[in-house]
Amino acid sequence: MIRAKMQRLGTFLAGMVIPNIAALIAWGLITALFIPRGWIPNEHLAKLVSPLIMYLLPVLIGFTGGRLVYGIRGGVVGALATMGVAVGSSVPMFIGAMTLGPLGGWVIKKVDQLLEARTPKSLEVLVANFSAGLVGLGLTLLAYTIAGPFMEALTLTLGGGAKRITQAGVLPLISLLIEPGKVLFVNNAINHGILAPLGIAEAKQAGKSIFFLLESNPGPGLGLLSAYWLVGKGEVKQSSPGAIIIHFLGGIHEIYFPYVLMNPPTILAMIAGGMSATATFVLMHAGLVATPAPGSIFAYIAMAPKGGLVPVLSGVLTGALASFLVALPIVSRFRSAADPAKDFAKAKQTVQAQQTQPATSAEKQ
Description:
Elements: H1 2-17, H2 21-34, H3 49-87, H4 94-116, H5 124-167, H6 175-183, H7 187-206, H8 211-214, H9 219-231, H10 234-249, H11 257-261, H12 267-283, H13 297-303, H14 309-334, H15 340-355, H16 361-364
């Protein structure tokens, strides 16, 4: 039950962020290119960085969240509410956008339901416009005066806690949550709900963030699939090279989930790979300038800051090697299973079932 709720939450969060990935990438490239420490520093063009991250990106996400709840009307009211929280804060309001956007859609939906039976036919357009305008006004003012300062304090608190964890040297332990969470399909909730907002806030100040590297790292998956390719057998061995291309080059991490689900002890390899990679990232002060989407090696290269490519690639390779070495004996032992092909087919069906779960009414709209 809890896992199903987390999956639905993750799907909804991803539904707000993924349609706007292009805008995030554009901002990341502008940041990587034109800030003073960028590839081609340009003071004039660097002025785009702050307005994009402070206003455009949160409003886009807020609009998308409101639209998921109640179509275009929900999107417009959600965008208004998000603008209030963005202006009312001095830090990027991605957490605020993910909260106020859907809230705006939900409120105008309830207002429309309340007014529908009470509105004369000749006044429907007028009432619809004024009701949305008044709801948007109210939510914008509340977001600006109350939600903005609250969300700012929450964001700063989370960011400060994350920095303390990083400075204490225990950030690699987060892999104990991330790697099992990925194969249980709560990766979207972890990545888009927690890590991405923290990363964006940090990248605005420091020009890069390690939080973009934690969930999206393709290294551990590469190590696992390579182990299956080397010592697996049957369909599992034959499918591994194609899965490596889809995962490592295409960034579709879900492709390796069946390989873990059919052989659960391999989650130890994924955790080892994630912890080793994160330790390397911390040691070498690695970070990306924006969310790599999808999590492929090409996205990592594109989002690496000037002078920061070697630390990023070192962590990816370390994660792949650690995952491979831990997975090798586990996969080798699994070859003696009674029917690994049957287990693999069952695991693929499980993954497909999770990916094709019926959308909620909010998502359908």
